[in-house]
Specification:
Shape of chain B: globular
Radius of gyration of chain B: 14 Å
Number of strands of chain B: 11
Largest sheet of chain A: 7 strands, mixed
Oligomer: heterodimer
Strand content of chain A: over 45%
Number of helices of chain A: 0
Number of helices of chain B: 0
Radius of gyration of chain A: 13 Å
Helix content of chain A: under 10%
Number of strands of chain A: 11
Structural class of chain B: mainly beta
Order of helices and strands of chain A: EEEEEEEEEEE
Largest interface: A-B, 20 and 22 residues
Structural class of chain A: mainly beta
Chain lengths: ~120, ~120
């Protein structure tokens, strides 16, 4: 199993600013992902964080808005840039060990409110 | 494209009653299927997963799910609900179109347990 720590757990941000969310895993994992969970909704995959290279973004998400880093096998960051109220959401870091069909482990999420 | 459908955004049961949360998937090949639970202000954690070893899968906290290929279903059940089961439940599938790389989540079902 893997334990994932995210910070900040919550924040209130002003429109136009940027915030970086950090994700630390307690063991090496093969894959790391970032999801967005808007209020009362399901999870939407933002991107796959690739170690040492550019992240792979899903349709509707772009690097300029959501730059992602993954410098090693246990750490990743997601930045939400030039925030607007529509970015108010929970951002979840997740990771997978081993096979592509294995379970995902999740952090507790970072709840962002943009005013 | 792959999809997961959860019937009923909200389910309410009395304590001690049967819990049944419905999930249907679309896939032309047997997928890997998962149920996750999310308690308030927490990330998701795995309840159980189907990986083709057995059609009836037992998970944590007394939950189980049965894979029915003919019905493309993977419904979650628990014989007797407990107040602590109140949470959001997500059915998910590893997308075979991407070699299981991506996990697709259903919209979620919020379970309420009445005393």
């Amino acid at each position: 199993s893997a334990v994932i720590s995210q910070k900040p757990s919550r924040d209130i941000c002003q429109r136009g600013t940027s915030l970086t969310i950090q994700c630390q895993v307690d063991s090496q994992v093969t894959m790391m992902f970032w999801y967005r969970q808007q209020p009362g909704q399901s999870l939407t995959l933002i991107a796959t964080a690739n170690q040492g290279s550019e992240a792979t973004y899903e349709s509707g998400f772009v690097i300029d808005k959501f730059p992602i880093s993954r410098p090693n096998l246990t750490f990743s960051t997601l930045t939400v840039s030039n925030m607007s109220p529509e970015d108010s959401s929970i951002y979840l870091c997740s990771a997978r060990q081993g096979a592509n069909t294995g379970e995902l482990f999740f952090g507790e999420g970072s709840r962002l409110t943009v005013l | 494209a792959q999809s997961v459908t959860q019937l009923g955004s909200h389910v309410s049961v009395s304590e001690g009653a049967l819990v049944l949360l419905r999930c249907n998937y679309s896939s032309s090949v047997p997928p890997y299927l998962f149920w996750y639970v999310q308690y308030p202000n927490q990330g998701l954690q795995l309840l159980l997963k189907y990986t083709s070893a057995a059609t009836l899968v037992k998970g944590i906290n007394g939950f189980e799910a049965e894979f029915k290929k003919s019905e493309t279903s993977f419904h979650l059940t628990k014989p007797s609900a407990h107040m602590s089961d109140a949470a959001e439940y997500f059915c998910a599938v590893s997308d075979p179109d991407t070699g299981g790389f991506k996990t697709i989540f259903g919209a979620g079902t919020r379970l309420f347990v009445k005393a």
